[in-house]
Amino acid sequence: MSNDLLRLAREQVPSSVHPGKPTSRKELADLVNNLLYGHRSAHSGFDANYVGKLERGEIRWPQEEYRKALRVVLNVRDDVDLGFCAAKARSGHAPGESVNVGGREKGAVAWQTPGAHVLQHRGLVPQSGPRSKDSFQFGDPLAPAPVSLLAPGRGPAATAPLRQPFTLWAPEGRFFPGLALEAYVHPAVIRGQIMVTVPDGYGDDPILNRPGRALVVGSTESRDGNRLFGMDSRHVRRRLRGAMPGARLAIPHAYVLDELTSAVLWAVTNLDAALLADDDLLEESRRDLPGYEPMVRSAASRDLAADLTPAAQIWLGSAFCAGHIRRHYPTLTDVPVFWTQESNGEEASTWLLFGHKLEYLRATAERFIGAGPVRIFCIPRSALDGSPTGERILLLLAVALIESYGIKVVVTDEPEYAGTAGFVSDRRRAIVATWVRADGIWHVDVTSDRSTLREYTDAANGAIIHSVIAGPASHERLRALADYLGLDWLPLVRRCRELADHGLAGIAQPRSRHLSTAGIDRSCRYVAGVDLDAY
How far apart are alpha carbons 82 and 75 in whole angstroms? Predict the structure, then answer.
């Protein structure tokens, strides 16, 4: 007999990948694996096929840690709500009935199951000490279901619970691993800033001093609905350290959890965790790079850094390609055209957050100051199909960052150019540097081959002539891009003005030394400078 309760529970959770559709079996498996192991696990027995067996009733009583994870993800109180039933004849007791076995109750949440130490290390289960009144344990039947940072609508505020902890889910992407972010909600009122009522001594609370990232959220309620305002736990500790009893936490109004700030949190959470986890390995891999730098042409297979996560490999490839281009700038004799391969918000977030990308843009602007170089993006409409609003905002902000350095951006929507390698060309010579969607970690070259140059020149000329964001002024190009991406331009300008005064670190501060919010702060300031009276 099929397990319709489990299937219906899954279908009640909106997909974070395909707006308007229910969570798929694969997405459910990824959510469970993230809670159990902190990432998608290719070696986990809990995959889409396993979920299918559960829904078909082939497996009626999955192991305990799977049941606990499913209760959290699907937001139910008991196993029976998911159609799970242990054979009573096997134990002589009904499911959920407590039985003393070996000195402890069978069925009690004892956290002695395999993998519990991993959950504790990830901060999903308290390791010791009393349970905080503002925290919840993984597996707690009262814990709300995770809320996607890329959910359609106005961001997490539309679906997040009030006045209780919940999990913000940073969905997986093409190279993002997918991670959970704990959020602790407290009541708040608007008094200029958002004044959040927190417990006395909150700055020293263990839940804010765990390793890793967490968010403290102030929830305001009105006739128009609730709004959520977030602050990074590290900043909360700084603000409340040594605070007097009764002190409240002040959160800037700019840190409202909407689609912009949620998308930034999505990118920072994923990249930060991946790069921190691989920090030592990444440093070892970087020590191998000088051997490649003297080469005019090189390609690094993924075997070079096979132990790195995909996000860390992306960082390594991006860093090497940026260095390759800068090393060969002197070979160019004219103002070049740049062709870039990022076509979605996940890929574009590297411009906003990778520290070396910002240095690369500065060096480019200094070398070609006043010359008006052009950078071309290929963003076919198919690349935007199903793309959440937050991802499209990141793409626009990345373009704004590049424009802020005096580099004119052109966008082509011609799908036949989507596979064009990244290059910098002055029509006499091309510096090739590819890392986005590459077979290996990078492929670089410097070429004067006439057929290759003709291919690049034709692609660049066609894109410039038929740019979907053509305009003489930067703000006109950005406005046209917003229209192309389906974004509301004027509200976005106003949001950037709010964030420009505070910076993004207060809500999404990276921990990795390879990341920075300096790029996205500069982008917000640039968009904020648009003259609204012109519209």
Answer: 10
